Each structure stands twice: as structure tokens, then as C-alpha cells.
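**Protein of interest**
===
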Amino acid sequence: MDKKRRFYFLISFIIITSCSKEQINNNPYLQNISFEKTINLNLPQYDNLRYSGGSVYIQSGGIKGILLFNMNDQFMAWEASCPNHYPSDCSTMVLSGVQSNCKCEDYKYSLATGQLLSSGNENNYPMLSYFAQKNGNSIRISN
């Protein structure tokens, strides 16, 4: 193969392998759920999101709902099901300030990073993140 063909092959290979928007989820407890949800920040149930450090639980979307967190006007969207348990009655996390807590084993997670803050077993998984984009007074959340 001449240099020009190798160059085009290499560029094509890079483009094909880097264009996937799918995120690899190696977490055995949570499956990928496709959804799209738009919320209106003008509605009273989302008042807490108007301030940095504010968070809300949204029951619809994802596996067990969505935890939405305002970090300096950048919105972080997380799966509400504990990433270290199969979905069950106790695996829906609850908000506690800038953290979320799993009721099954009292795991604590950062809403800013999604990382486990309390000690757990040796194979700990971070919270599953979703895409969140603010546009005016609305936020679009999707997977």
C-alpha cells in the first residue's frame, strides 16, 4: 500500500472508531435504558435547581428515575438506581445535600462527580451519568 492510501485508511479508521456516541457501561447491575426528557426550570417543582448545589429527584426517566444536580449552572444528571446493586425496593437513592444515599447499604455518592464516597466492596461502580444540556429555561436529559 502506498503512503497516500495508508494515510486515508488511517484517517478513515480513526473517524469510524471515534464517532460512536455510545458510552460503554461495564456495570453488571445497571442496563442501558434509552430515553429523552425535557424539564422546564420555570415550574415550581424545579425551584431547587435555580441555585448552585441544588438538586431534584425526577421519578420518570432512566431505570429508577434521575437525580439532577446544579453545579455552578452546569447540570449533572445521574441514574437514581444505586450502581452497586441490582434494581430493587431499596436501591433508589435519595438526595442528601450534595450527596445521594443508597438505602440498601447506606452507600454515599457525590452528586458532583458520581464517585462512591463511603467504603464498599472491592468492585465499586460510580453513578451512571446521563447527558444533560441547558437551553434557556429548559434542560434536556437523555441517554
About this structure: The domain at 30-142 is CATH 2.102.10.10 (Rieske Iron-sulfur Protein). Strands lie at 36-40, 55-58, 66-71, 74-79, 94-96, 99-101, 108-110, 129-135, 138-142.
